[in-house]
Amino acid sequence: MGHVVLFHSVYGLRPAVLTAADRLRAAGHQVTTPDLYGRPPVDTVEEGFALLAAVGQDEVLRRARAAVDPLPPDTVLAGWSMGAGVAGALLAERPHTAALLLLHGTGGDPAGVRAGLPVQLHLADPDGYEPPDELDEWRRAMTDAGARLEVFRYPGAGHLFTDPDVPDHDPVAAERTWQRMLAFLPAGQPTGPAAA
After folding, report:
1. CA 163: distance to chain centroid?
2. Is residue 154 domain-resident?
3. Domain-embedded: residue 125
C-alpha cells in the first residue's frame, strides 16, 4: 500500500494520532507521524495555541519539511486541524503527492493542487474554525484547480471529533470518517521502509 504522513493538531502529537497511524498500518499502509513541537502534547486548545506560539509556525513548517524530505514523492499528505494546514502548505512543494487527506480543517490556500489530485475533507457541521463562506470559497478554488474533491460534513460533531480524548469526540462520526478514509487512501506497492 502507499505511504502516509500524518501531521498532528495544535494539541501536539496526541495518542489519537498514534492510534490512527497504527490503524492505517494494520490496513497495509506505511505511516510517519512527525512531532512538529518536540514537546509533550497538551490537554486544551488554549495550551495548544500557546505551544504553537512558543515553537513558532516557521519552525513547525521546517520540521514538517524535514520529516517528509526522505519520504517517497507520492506520499499522501494528511493532517488534523492545524496539521491539515501543514499538509496543505507542503503540497506545492511535493507535486507527486498521491492524495491530500484533511481532517478538521481545509488546509488553507489550495496552491499546488493539480488536476486530478484526490482530496478528501472531513469537517464538523458547523465548525467554528471553518466559517461557511470561507469553506465555500475553498471548495470553489479546489474544484477550479481540478481536484477530485470529496467533502464530508458531520452534523452536531465537535471540531476534533475523531480524537477520543477531547470533549469534541463523536464516536459515530469518527467511525464513519474512518470507513471513508480507508476507502479513499490509494493502494500501491510499498515504496520505502516503514517509519514510525
Report:
1. 13
2. yes
3. yes
Q: Which three cell numbers stand for residue 43?
A: 490537554
Q: Provide φ and ψ at 156, rounded to 5°.
A: 80, -10
Our count of domains for the chain comes to 1
Please give the residue range of the domain that contains residue 176: 3-184
d(CA 16, CA 137): 30
**Cis before 126 (ω within 30):** yes
Inter-helix orientation angle 57-68/82-91, to 10°: 60
Report pTM. Answer: 0.93
Q: Rounded to whole angstroms, how far apart are CA atoms 62 and 66?
A: 6
Q: Is 26 helix (H, G, I), strand (E, B) or coil?
A: helix
Per-10-residue mean pLDDT for the chain, 196 residues long? 92 96 96 97 95 97 98 97 96 95 90 93 96 95 95 97 94 97 76 38
Residue 26 lies in a domain: yes
Q: Which element (helix H / strand E) includes 175?
A: helix 171-184
Indicate the length of the chain as a whole number.
196
Report the distance separating Cα 88 and Cα 10, nearest Å: 15
Let me know if residue 190 belongs to a domain.
Answer: no
Write the CATH number for 34.
Answer: 3.40.50.1820
